[in-house]
From TrEMBL:
Keywords: DNA-binding, Transcription, Transcription regulation. Pfam families: DJ-1_PfpI, HTH_18. The keyword Transcription regulation applies. Residues 209-307 form the HTH araC/xylS-type domain. This is AraC family transcriptional regulator. PROSITE patterns: HTH_ARAC_FAMILY_1 (PS00041), HTH_ARAC_FAMILY_2 (PS01124).
C-alpha cells in the first residue's frame, strides 16, 4: 500500500476523545503507510472542551486526503457549508469518508449518507433518523461499513471502526499490533445496545472477561458451551444470558469470530499450510476454514494470504 493520506477534521466543539481515536490509530508509524494530518477550517483552530486546538492542516489537506475522518461534535450545530461541500466532493471523487459518533450528522448534512446505512451514538440515533430520512439508520451496531463510507456508533466504537479500517487496509496482524499498543480489543462483537443504560447488576455479579480471556488462549481446543459455562462457574442457561448481555452476541458466534481472527493473523504472519492454520485456530479442517472464510470474508484463505503477504510487499 502506497502512502495513504488521512485527514482528521476538527470542527469547533469537536469531542476530544473522538478526535484522539483516529489521530492515535492513524498516526505515522514506520510499519504503516498512513500520513495523518489534523485539519480545521479557516484559521486552522478549533475550540473543544476546555481548550483550543491548533491544527496542522486546513481544508486543502482535506481535499488532498485519501481518507477523511469526521469525529463527533455537537449534532445541533450545522457545519459550515464550505465543509459540507468539500465532504460531498470527496465522496464524489471516490475518497473514503468516515465519521465517529455524532460526526455522522456532518456526513448526513453533506448528503454523503443518502441511500446508505449508517449509525451514530445511541442517544442521538432518533434525531439522525428523523432529520435525515434518506439515510437508513442501523441502531444496534458498533459501526457500519458501506465501502467508501463508514460510520461508527458512540465514542469508543470509533476505536472498533478505525481498527476495522486498518484491518481492511493492512490485514489483521497490523490491526492487532496497533490494538495491543492501545490495550484495546482487536475486534468486538455485538452492538451498542449492550451499552445502553440498564438496571444495576445484582450484588456479586462479575464480568465474564476472565472466561473470554481464558478461551482466547485455547482456541485450538474443543471449547463447547458446557466447557465455557463450567469455567465461569455458571449454569449453561445463566452463562448464555450473561454472555449475550455483555457482548451482544452468543458464545458460539463470539468463538467463531475469534477463531477467524486468529486464522487471519496466522495466514499473514506464518507460512503454515492451510490445514495446520485450521487446526491451530480451532476450525478443524481446511475445508471448514474455507467455508467460514467464504461466508464471513467472501474470499478463500489462500487468496487472503496472497493479499496480505508482507514478504511479497518487501
Amino acid at each position: 500500500m502506497a502512502t495513504h493520506r488521512v485527514a482528521v477534521l476538527a470542527l469547533d466543539g469537536v469531542t476530544p476523545l473522538d478526535l484522539g481515536i483516529p489521530t492515535q490509530i492513524f498516526n505515522s508509524r514506520p510499519e504503516t503507510p498512513y500520513e495523518m494530518t489534523v485539519c480545521a477550517p479557516g484559521k486552522k483552530a478549533a475550540t473543544t472542551a476546555g481548550f483550543t486546538l491548533v491544527a496542522d492542516g486546513d481544508m486543502e489537506q482535506v481535499r488532498a486526503a485519501d481518507t477523511v475522518i469526521v469525529p463527533g461534535y455537537d449534532p445541533l450545530v450545522r457545519a459550515p457549508d464550505a465543509v459540507l461541500d468539500i465532504l460531498a466532493e470527496a465522496r464524489d471523487r471516490g475518497r473514503r469518508v468516515v465519521s465517529i459518533c455524532t460526526g455522522a450528522f456532518v456526513l448526513a448534512a453533506a448528503g454523503v449518507l443518502d441511500g446508505l446505512h449508517a449509525t451514530t451514538h445511541w442517544k442521538h440515533i432518533d434525531d439522525l433518523e428523523r432529520d435525515f430520512p434518506a439515510v437508513t439508520v442501523d441502531r444496534d451496531v458498533l459501526y457500519v461499513d458501506e465501502g467508501d463510507v463508514l460510520t461508527s456508533a458512540g465514542v469508543c466504537c470509533g476505536i472498533d471502526l478505525c481498527l476495522h479500517i486498518v484491518r481492511r487496509d493492512l490485514g489483521a496482524g497490523a490491526a492487532n499490533e496497533i490494538a495491543r499498543g492501545l490495550v484495546a480489543a482487536p475486534h468486538r462483537d455485538g452492538g451498542q445496545a449492550q451499552y445502553v443504560p440498564a438496571p444495576v447488576p445484582v450484588a456479586g455479579k462479575t464480568s465474564l472477561s476472565d472466561t473470554r480471556g481464558w478461551a482466547l488462549h485455547r482456541l485450538d481446543e474443543p471449547l463447547t458451551l458446557p466447557v465455557l459455562a463450567r469455567h465461569a462457574g455458571l449454569s449453561q442457561r445463566t452463562f448464555m444470558r450473561r454472555f449475550t448481555e455483555e457482548t451482544g452476541t452468543t458464545p458460539l458466534q463470539w468463538l467463531l469470530n475469534a477463531r477467524l481472527g486468529k486464522a487471519r493473523e496466522l495466514l499473514e504472519t506464518t507460512d503454515h499450510p492451510i490445514d495446520r492454520v485450521a487446526r491451530d485456530c480451532g476450525l478443524g479442517t481446511a475445508a471448514n476454514l474455507r467455508l467460514h472464510f467464504r461466508r464471513a470474508l467472501d474470499t478463500t484463505p489462500t487468496a487472503y494470504r496472497r493479499a496480505f503477504d508482507r514478504s511479497a510487499a518487501r
